[in-house]
Amino acid sequence: MRLTPLALVLALGLGLTGCGAHVADDAADDGARGGKPSGHYPVTVENCGTKVTYDKAPGRVVTNDVGNTEIMFALGLEDHMAGFVMPDDKGDLDAVPWKDGYRTVPWLSKKEITKELVLDAEADLVFAGWNYGFSEATGVTPAALKKLGVGSHVLTESCRNGQGAARGVMPPLEALYTDLTTLGKIFDVEDRAAALVRDFKKQVADARAKTPKSGHRPTVFLYDDGRDRPFTSGRYAGPHDIITKAGGDHVMKDLDDSWTTVGWETVVERDPEVIVINDYGDTSAARKREFLLSYGPLRNVSAVKHRRIYIMDYADLVESPRNPAAIAALAAYLRGIGGPRPE
């Protein structure tokens, strides 16, 4: 339903009352209402360094991108969702355990999220992230949504860390567990969230138990896209934990960012034995592989010489409930190449 000018004016004056959320001033705010809170609410959580208090569970959440959407599905929160926004290039959606969510929750747009879309959906909360929907360039930011009476939850992987636009404040898997735990509190499904975290930690532990206890760890580079300069993962994006917990050595582990750009000379210098391709975007994984194998400056890189190129789905590599299974899959591949570093 498109808002009329009058409805838009009313929306502008709602503050954060739609989902009963507001930014907590400080610890003294806990007693501002007087008396003891009844039931689960109000509940205060911290998201990317900001404390937010919820007086009730949001009922019309709009998510942006596959990872955020599947976090909600994994928590069983479809009934609290107004819809999701994401392109249709996010892999096989029928292969995930929470596939029913895609059949029941409206797919609002396959383009970028907009303020108009959020208002049309009558959203009371947007679950997105910096560069996962939130962007000053598009005007869709938590601050802008707050002025429209809509709350925000920022994907923890994307939290800005105080170094310009650099993102990441904790290890990637910890970011996933943090969002699951925080959303569990917001929606009063803490037991469900805790069970997911336990299950995911066990999946990761089982995968790590199968990796060699000593000896050489294959060096791995994550290639997202880019011809002049490759877009890759630093230590705060999902691939870092996926690579390291799968038994690999992430060659860009010294980058204090999540997703970022480096120079090809850095890739050549660090000489990865394996390149993981992020199957995402307009360029197919097959074309990315062809480029890597034919790009002159990479001809002496070990991964290219030995054609050790492994393709993973985008949803495996961004913060999502698919991360633990992705670790197990990559671990199996790395075990398969085995042996000492090839010369």
Provide a concise account of the structure shown.
With 343 residues, this protein is α/β, with parallel strands linked by helices. It has helices spanning 5-12, 66-74, 100-104, 115-120, 142-147, 172-186, 190-209, 238-245, 264-270, 285-294, 302-305, 314-317, 323-337; strands at residues 21-23, 43-47, 50-54, 61-64, 81-85, 107-109, 125-130, 133-134, 151-154, 219-223, 231-233, 249-250, 259-261, 274-279, 309-313.
- H-E order: HEEEEHEHEHEEHEHHEEHEEHEHHEHH
Strand content: 15-25%
Query: What characterizes the major β-sheet?
Result: 6 strands, parallel
Regions with pLDDT < 50 over 5+ consecutive residues?
1-17, 25-38
Indicate the overall shape: globular
Q: What's the overall average pLDDT, rounded?
A: 89
Level of helix content? 25-40%
Radius of gyration using CA atoms only: 21 Å
Q: So how many helices? A: 13
N-to-C CA distance: 62 Å
Question: How many DSSP-defined strands?
Answer: 15
Structural class: alpha/beta
List the SSEs and their pairings.
Elements: H1 5-12, E1 21-23, E2 43-47, E3 50-54, E4 61-64, H2 66-74, E5 81-85, H3 100-104, E6 107-109, H4 115-120, E7 125-130, E8 133-134, H5 142-147, E9 151-154, H6 172-186, H7 190-209, E10 219-223, E11 231-233, H8 238-245, E12 249-250, E13 259-261, H9 264-270, E14 274-279, H10 285-294, H11 302-305, E15 309-313, H12 314-317, H13 323-337
